Amino acid sequence: MNVLVTYPERCVGCRICEQWCSWKHEGRVNPTKARVRVSRVHSKYLNVPVTCMQCAKSPCIAACREGALSKDPATGAVIVDEEKCIGCRRCVRACPYGAVAIDKDKRVVLICDLCGGEPQCVAHCREGAIEYVPLAVADRGQRAAYVETVAAAMEGGSK
Amino acid sequence: MAALKGLAGQILRVDLTSGSITKEPTPEDVFAGYIGARGVGAYLLLKELKPHTDPLGPDNKLIFLTGPVEGTLAPGANKITVTFRSPLTGTYFFSLCGGHLAPEVKFAGYDGIIIEGRGDHPVYLWIDDDRVTLKDASHLWGKLTHATEDAIRAELKDEAIRVACIGPAGEKLSRFACIQSDYHREFGRGGAGAVMGSKNLKAIAVRGSGSIEVADPAALEALAEKTYSILAGNLKARARRHYGTPEMVDGTNGLGYWGTRNFSSGYFEEANKINAASMKENIFVGHISCYACPIACGKVSYIKEGPYAGTMIEGPEFESAGLLGANCGVADLAALVKAVEICDTYGLDTMSAGAVASLAMECYEKGIITSRDTGGLDLRFGNGAALVALMEKIVRREGIGDLLAEGSKRAAEKLGVPELAMQVKGQEFATYDPRGCKGMGLGYAISPKGAHHMIAPTMGAETAGDGSKRFEYKGKAALVRETQFLLAVVDSLSLCSSMRFALGLKEQIELYRAVSGLALDEAGAMLIGEKITNLERLFNQREGFDRKDDYLPPRMLKEKMPTGPSQGHLVELDPMLDEYYDLMGWDRQGRPTAEKLAALGLAHLWREVS
Ligand code: SF4
């Protein structure tokens, strides 16, 4: 099973991922209907892509009292049953990443469905800021970054 | 919802005098005829502005317009234009801004925003989808641009709101004040910020949640994919991706047409200290992108040590490095970054700011102004600290800064040395020295907004191959004419001009067809480019501009390039002008002939407005 991994330090804030996400799901470009959202921290010149992380124990699913959310066993994506969703936004509040949003027209929640296994944000990010990798190795990027920091510190120290 | 696809369907009109806010249906016939943004702006300004409108009076307008591709899947679709009569040049003017403002305006449901009148106290415009209000901005007056953006986002409690605002320079009516957005993207040239300041409008804040319908989604999707892959393999695009616009420093300086020390030369010996390689090595710490851009040319710079330690900006752009750097003889990267920061936070065009600084420096070296005039600043070429201190004076209009805030032309006239201002129609040169690239000289001369480099950016074609074509005169009028039409199209579509690395006219028109559903072809697009060019000319003609205003300063015509690879060259302008006017179907005074106007279908409009 693959999961999404984001690398905010690589993100440039072009929001091409948002474009393709809404385009594929809605047939229109509309950032408020994208399941991935890029926030710019202006004062720090940073951009942070925020998307569903396919949590092992999904707080959104646990929070939903209507049984509207379930996990696709094949992809691990959270699937929204739009018939059951009442738009109460409990899942929005439960998500540790802020990756759940509400569709203002349909008044049901928007959660990444991994595009059925071919996430369009990943396919179109030119910066490699979102990857779709096997769960078993999803932590390697984080580890590499940590190792680099330590190595840099050690190098600095030995001078 | 508009019948013509790609449009939001409404234009917002805000009269600051009465406080009235109205929504009008987008004039679809005008969009069909002129594509959008620049083209529609030229048409509307000519129609709506009375002749001889005071640029800083309530009757001037700020006509913000997007193009048909914004808010769709189109790559690089992020420009919004503002059209107005310029307080710097007195001409028709439009400025383009990237960042994320344009799509937000479309998502909010508008193709454009027309601002007219003048408020009796500072306000900002808050566009929250269909809810539009004017809010008091007294507490924001005097704030720097970044602080203004931050304050508005905090006040409206949404980090994702897009803001366009002016800083103190615009409030103080500096004639080259800009309108700033997303911190470091701006409606840069021509003084749109001063017009906004004169209207007591501090900012426009936008939040949009809608979407734009396109005519042929499958075709658009295919075109977008194609654009990404072409850009990924394109060498120029890759250079820009890695280094930002400063990738152009080495090429321009290497051929000896990079304006240096107030264009006394076109070759800067210390260019390697402020070129892309040096920036990457010393100051770049990250990348930042405008909306939907597959290139991401924005580079974040940070100064680690020295007197300007802690300064962080997006930039410097190539033009800023040229005009604040080479043209002031300044090779001190940290000072350059600081100067850009001052301009961006106070809301001043870095290009004109660099140009007035270089003028002041030449005057100082020639003894025309002394340290008594400069408040003790040692304004020699190359003095980075003095450049920074001078920027502070200009943005505050302190001492000599008050004079310089009027722009090079006015300042040089006051100082009794009009010939030392490198400008056309009051608009300071961009960073290219036309003696080393003749087509750029003709482009500066005939540009409706003065010496602007993006009206007919012919440098690429002129420097192709062994680079010697740039000295030729033959064919330049035709090249300028064609480039001018092409740019009029790209600016009207509102694509970033960097997309031209991948999208020629053919692809741009395919994109337009996919979005709008209109059956425009390339010849038709060139004709629209020509019509826009003529409309712009007509506006200026109504204000009394003609051939006499299409001249370069005497330095370009009489002083041979003293050093570098363009050494010994001058610009022979008159023959190029004659040829250009002939090709355009204009008389030798540079006025569109009756036959030309009739052929373009503009005769009726011209009778109506003249
Ligand atoms: S496409 Fe990639 S770089 Fe662009 S905003 Fe999304 S995550 Fe960031």
UniProtKB/TrEMBL annotation, chain A:
Gene name in the database record: padI
EC number: 1.2.1.58
Keyword Heme found: no
A GO MF term: phenylglyoxylate dehydrogenase (acylating) activity
CDD domains assigned: DMSOR_beta_like
Protein name: NADH-dependent phenylglyoxylate dehydrogenase subunit beta
Keywords for this protein: 4Fe-4S, Electron transport, Iron, Iron-sulfur, Metal-binding, Oxidoreductase, Transport
Annotated 4Fe-4S ferredoxin-type domain residues: 1-32, 76-105
PROSITE patterns recorded: 4FE4S_FER_1, 4FE4S_FER_2
Superkingdom of the organism of origin: Bacteria
UniProtKB/TrEMBL annotation, chain B:
Signal sequence, start to end: none
Reported cofactor(s): [4Fe-4S] cluster; tungstopterin
Any one GO molecular-function label of the UniProt entry: oxidoreductase activity, acting on the aldehyde or oxo group of donors, iron-sulfur protein as acceptor
Domain Aldehyde ferredoxin oxidoreductase N-terminal residues, every copy: 7-210
EC number, as in UniProt: 1.-.-.-
Membrane spanning residue stretches: none
Keyword vocabulary terms for this entry: 4Fe-4S, Iron, Iron-sulfur, Metal-binding, Oxidoreductase
Superkingdom of this protein's organism: Bacteria
SUPFAM superfamilies, A to Z: Aldehyde ferredoxin oxidoreductase, C-terminal domains (SSF48310), Aldehyde ferredoxin oxidoreductase, N-terminal domain (SSF56228)
Alphabetized SMART domains for the sequence: AFOR_N
Pfam families on file: AFOR_C, AFOR_N
Family according to the record: Belongs to the AOR/FOR family.
Protein name in the entry: Putative oxidoreductase YdhV
Primary gene name: ydhV_1
